[in-house]
Amino acid sequence: MANKILVTGATGTVGSATVKALSSLGAEVRAGVRSLIKGDNLKRLPGVETVELNFSRPENLAVAFTGVGAVFLITPFAQDQVEMAQKLIDAAKGAGVKHVVRLSVIGADAEPSIQIGRWHRQAEEYLKASGLPYTLLRPGGFMQNFVNQYATTIKENNVFYQPNGEGRAGYIDVRDIGAVAAHILMNPSEHAGLAYTLTGPQALSGHEVAEIFTTVLGRPIHYKDIPEDAARTAMQQQGLPDWMTESLLELSAITRAGYTSGLTSTVQEMLGREPHTFQQFVEAHKDCF
Ligand SMILES: NC(=O)c1ccc[n+]([C@@H]2O[C@H](COP(=O)([O-])OP(=O)(O)OC[C@H]3O[C@@H](n4cnc5c(N)ncnc54)[C@H](OP(=O)(O)O)[C@@H]3O)[C@@H](O)[C@H]2O)c1
């Protein structure tokens, strides 16, 4: 019987949060992982099995999708993410999957959008055209980006640098994205054909984020707004490819311009509880900073 819920990119930030949320709801979960060794921790959760799922290996796709009822389709921030998503949608269709929940991005439906949004829109359109029942999740910037991108400078120098000016963002904790995704995947037919924009509870500027870090960590943490050119040079020095540097700078440009400050109440409406605050996020990850 096709009752398994497959999560692709399951070792990633959103994927692992979703696998945990599904496991706690008693789901039968198949965690699609590029490396079985890396997926070892997930396998220890109740109801979770892992399957090798490298998107460039067609033989992996066929096995991973067998017996799957619903899939949470996560692809990485990569230049070929649209092709990856298309391959996965084709595989889902071929295997007779009944519902696809797609991790997209806030503003994917906006015209003309930025590169990240346009890539996601292409994947969304391919999914819609596939005829598969679908739900789209469009989250704002992740709070967990601060662990992945700024933990070192915060820990070592009590500062984080962003070319975001005084722009605000409705950062969301990926634990809430995972909980919403799990909620939908357990009852997908109720959410068929719908798109949900997900944000956290507050739109925060860099200085407000720094104040929260200061309060929780008990030492002064500073936000430094830097010019776009300085951010470009820093990213180039870190070895980021040009496409990634320019995509991230576009994101900062729309943040500076005030386009990322909108909030939604979707998490509260869907889960019946408030989304995590930035303060709760920092408290949960104190050791990283
Ligand atoms: N960061 C944000 O603020 C933000 C906001 C809105 C939307 N998004 C969207 O969220 C998505 C990224 O989610 P995330 O942050 O959870 O990603 P992530 O942490 O970077 O994880 C990516 C996952 O994809 C896997 N993966 C990468 N290449 C693969 C391949 N060729 N075959 C199989 N698996 C592969 C990775 O496996 P390994 O662990 O083996 O590398 C990992 O499990 C992107 O679509 C992004 O646009 C991000």
Automatic annotation (TrEMBL):
Start and end residues of each NmrA-like domain: 2-255
First and last residue of the signal peptide: none
Keyword Oxidoreductase among record annotations: yes
GO molecular function, one term: NAD(P)H dehydrogenase (quinone) activity
InterPro entries: Ergot_Alk_Oxidoreductase, NAD(P)-bd_dom_sf, NmrA-like
CDD domains the record matches: TMR_SDR_a
Key words, A-Z: Oxidoreductase
Protein name: SDR family oxidoreductase
Tree of life domain: Bacteria
EC number: 1.6.5.2
